[in-house]
Amino acid sequence: MDAASVPLAVYALSLAPAVVWGFTPVIEKRALSGGGRPLQAALTVVVVDTILYLLALLARGEVPFADLSAETLAVFVLAGVLGTAVGRIAIFAGNARVGASVSSAVVSARPLFATALAVGFLGEVASLTTVAGIVVLVGGLAVLSVAKGGDLSGWETRDLLVPLAAAVAFAVGNVLRRFGLDAGATTPLEAVALNELAALVALLAYVVARGRRDVFTAPPRTYLVFAVSGVLTAGALLSMFTALSMPAGRIAIVDPLVATAPLFTTLFSYFLLSDLERVTWRIVAGAVLVVVGAALVTV
User: Fold this and answer.
1) Does 113 score more than 80 pLDDT?
2) Are 193 and 76 in contact (CB under 8 A)?
3) Which of 34, 76, 80, 67 minimizes the C-alpha distance to 202?
4) Which of 126, 131, 214, 238 gets the most CB atoms within 10 Å of its CB?
């Protein structure tokens, strides 16, 4: 599909989450540095956005998930467990370890994995520029690994594996969502509600199984910050699901636009996290290279 034939709404709905998810890691980093915990953050965000989605469905007079087939339920449940529960824990852990600016940049490698999966399982077509994109993207990650920025307490190169795991989880989640939405068996609102409800159940099961009572004993202020993040995330997710549900909303278009979030995170971090993170020119260069590489992968 030619870029000129893609409706403007697809671009707008894909860029909106990038701005939101460029900002939320910054306020989350503030809460994490104030006694918050990655699992607590993930759980709080999912509780808040799940409640908002279910209330929205009920307000529309819909009985949530009543008409969905077992196959559709399975697709969005799996997307919620991998793309939300696992991915969110990993990204919050990444923010805590290496800082919001570095973690967000690494997560933007997601289009590499998402495009590979979309080509293999959804039949989408990737350009030959994918090779060039991979080279640029890997170069960006290499620059980040020696950036000497991010969290002021310091971090090791191996810590980048944590946000990279989040990138893989988010990629799998987005491909599953596109597959489910492309089938036309559900609305974006119902799909995102099911996605987050599945993630909530998975996170609660993990909390109970591991006896993680510490998620309920963090400083009260951190819950408020994560709840605000949950409200913002609710809007961002619905925007992304709506883009993916559109005929022109291919993974190769939506995912790289969403993946520009680290450019906004770097900007917000520079102004709002100067006491917690060091935003160096290498971090800026690495973030730009990762985003450019991700874009080339999906051209």
Assistant:
1) yes
2) no
3) 80
4) 238
Can you tell me whether residue 108 is helix, strand or coil?
coil
Give the integer Cα–Cα distance in Å for 137 and 46.
30
For the chain, give the longest Cα–Cα distance: 53
277 forms beta bridges with 151
Q: Report CA 175 to chain centroid distance, whole Å.
A: 13
Cα angle 134, 169, 242 (rounded to 5 degrees) comes to 95
Q: pLDDT for 238-268, tens place per residue?
A: 999 999 999 888 887 788 788 778 778 878 8
pLDDT tens for each residue of 126-175: 667 766 776 787 677 667 655 656 566 667 778 888 888 998 998 999 89
Place of tokens 């022109």: 248
Long-range pairs of 92-95 with CB within 8 A, sequence gap ≥ 24: 92/28, 92/32, 92/38, 92/39, 92/41, 92/42, 93/38, 93/162, 94/159, 94/162, 94/163, 94/166, 95/25, 95/28, 95/29, 95/32, 95/38
Tokens encoding 111: 């289009």
